[in-house]
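Slide 14.
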Amino acid sequence: GTILKQGAPDWLLKIVKTEPPFADRALWDLLHAYPLQGLVIDVPAGKRVEKPVEITIHGHENTFFFPRTVIRLGECAELTVLEYHKGQGRYWNNRVTQAVLGAGAVLRHVRIQENSTQAVYTQNTHVEVCADARYEAFVLTSGSLLSRNELQVDLAGEGAGCNLLGVNLLQGKQHGDTTITVA
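Slide 15: predicted structure.
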């Protein structure tokens, strides 16, 4: 549903309005030219979500879409997100994920990108990792004619850490690039 609606909590508005320093500002600005819609996941302090949250995003012929996910983990919360990207035909999936991990929180984020080999897939992820928190990510890219994955992880506290892994299984004229910034 719409992320910025009347009565949206202040914490959500703050995250959504944050302008991470992605290398490709044009994609970020393009996302904000449309109504902000997507999924919000908010895990309270101390909560360990046992079952992974699964997100499937499906592209359709001749569409441009801009799915967005905002994740907030409270102090010492734990969550695993499994994200699947699929589709048929020619389309453009311009995706944004923003996450804020409270002190001692752990987010495990797995992204499987199997879009149509005629599709364009652009992904911007921005994660703020507070003290003693961890962001663990794995990306498998085997789809899309053109894919671009930009990841910015801000280690915002003492003991904050990340583990970033990925595999590109491309063939023929497929092009995939990944830009990672850890600050």
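Speaker note: The first strand starts at residue 38 and ends at 43.
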